[in-house]
Amino acid sequence: MTALRRVRTHPLVRRVAEAVATLLGVAVCVFLMLRVIPGDQITATYGTEAAALTPAQREALRSYYGIDRPLAVQFLGWLGELGTGNLGFARRTGQSVASMTAHALPVTLELAVLSTLLGLALGVPLAMWSASRPGALRDIVGQGIGLAALALPSFLLGSVLLAVVSRYAGYNPNARRYAPLFDDPGLNLQQMLFPTLVLGFALTAPIMRTARSALLEIEGQDFVRTARGKGVSPGRIRVRHVLRAALVPIVTMTGIQFGYLLGGAVVVEQIFSLPGLGRQVLTGLLQKEYAVVQSSVLVVALGFVVVNLATDLLYRAIDPRVRES
Amino acid sequence: MTEASTTVLGAEPAPLGGGGPPPRRARGILRALLANRSGAVGAVLTGVVVLAALASYAGLTPFDPVAQHAADRLQGPGGTYWLGTDQFGRDTFSRAVAGAAGSLQVAVVAVAISAVVGSAAGVLAGWFGSAVRAPVLAVTNILFAFPPLLLALALASMFTRSWFTIAIAIAVVYVPIFVRVARGPVLSLRETEFVRAAVVVGMPTWRVLLREVLPNLLPVLIVQVTLSLSWAVLTEASLSFLGLGTPPPAASLGSMVLDARVLVTIAWWTMAAPGVVIVLLVVGLNLLGDGLRDVLDPRRAVR
Q1: Which chain A residues are closer than 8 Å to B279 by Cβ?
Q2: Which residue of B has its CA nearest to A220?
Q3: Neighbour-count burial of A37, counting CB atoms closer than 10 A to its CB (0-12 exposed, 13-18 middle, 19+ buried)
Q4: What pLDDT was estimated at residue B22?
Q5: What residues in A contact B261, CB-CB < 8 Å?
Q6: Taking a C-beta distance cutoff of 8 angstroms, is the pair B273, B92 a contact?
Q7: What is the predicted pLDDT for the residue at B1?
Q8: H/E segment holding residue A321
Q9: Is the pLDDT at B17 greater than 50, yes or no?
Q10: What is the pTM of this model?
Q11: Quick check: B146 contacting A, CB < 8 Å?
Q12: What is the ipTM of this complex?
């Protein structure tokens, strides 16, 4: 960010402008990506029967779907529709992508929030415990747990957890139809339990590793020595001085990971049959529902860019030095 | 995996001549790496999996990984089949090793592409003015705006499915990381005495970049390559698990886990074998990366 040209605009304005430009770029990419895929809406809709169409029929269909117009016009048309809240329609069910997304987004958000909280609750204390005696047994154990969280892929942990618990404890809330949070909170939270455990554990790795190295770096700095020399109690130093100063990297890492969860929870949503955004994209890809993929991916990217922006704002609030520059 | 890292970057330092680390230094680095706890453990774990994978390329697995032995379905470990057989009577051990080879092949090619493309773009973006910087950073920002697995999924589904298109999809996802890793140090290297001196004496720009800048980036890049390999292995396995990875019947760690989901309570070994291989490989690569960072890049090393 430091290399950006020094324009006389407020850094926040610049940051927002950058985010908007990125989103536009994402929209262009998503649009072009789906045009590169072999086949078009006609072959996707009619399958092998598309080969039997006469040139005239084909031409009529092309103009019906609007794919006879120049790419730029198609793109602007799509963008204009998005502006009015029309995200397109699923070919088979005829459902609007906007309403599908309205159902999927809360599922994904709930899962992301719960897993992030669990990841923080496990990762930060583990890092503090580990960093309190670098090189000692507790550090090795702590780092070992962090490494395990990094190396155990969600699909493995999720599959084993689901299979073992449902076989030996006969408990599998995810086999039942998904219950939205506000319809049946009890069942919903049970269905979120295993996915949250798996994702929260996976998040422990980056959070723990980032927090540990930040804590160690800050512990060696002068102001910590001063505080120690002043006679501040070790516990207070650890929380009020060291942890507070280490918050920026921890918040940044958590923000990035939270953003990834918006669309990156595909695997866990798939294993535990949660109808979230990731699964919506995956199903769309497998069924060649281009409108669904196109708009859902854009929604995911929008979420990611917004989360990153929010993270930036958050550490402006945490760290006065960022505010100054 | 050190062999792979050097081949990945080998294409670049070759014309450097004196710029690359001389053999004595390379041996010193290896010794330091083995003296480092993470480095040694990581090198051994990675080495074991890589050797097994190479052996499977040479056809040295106990059984053909795709051969079905109908009479010996779901055999337990021990006996003729070291780690038992799956529901088609295929040897689990051979399949896990072949799966590791397949995952590594995709990961190595993917990381090689993204390391070369990404660090070249990063070096150019760090060296030249906004004419190069702006487009490179714009593309980087756009690629960073997608969750990695989702982007890999979307890209992988664009092409006809083969191990190479999957490698390309994963490569695109990791390009921005190398751009970022390479660009940062170039910004400060550009201002150093020795680089300025090279420019002042009239060394052509490409030579300055290859002989003065690139060798100083190598430590950071080698560490990044090792860590990226572990993510690429995981990404490939996740794609296969979701049904968009290496096409069957070829063995793949992700699709083995997928198949084992329904079998795990009656035949735990079908899940354990690919699981253990993934964990060994990823732990090994991460420890190796940490060790390499301690040895090559002491400033960024975590105590």
Answers
A1: 151-152, 156
A2: B303
A3: middle
A4: 45
A5: 159, 162-163
A6: yes
A7: 35
A8: helix A320-324
A9: no
A10: 0.85
A11: yes
A12: 0.83
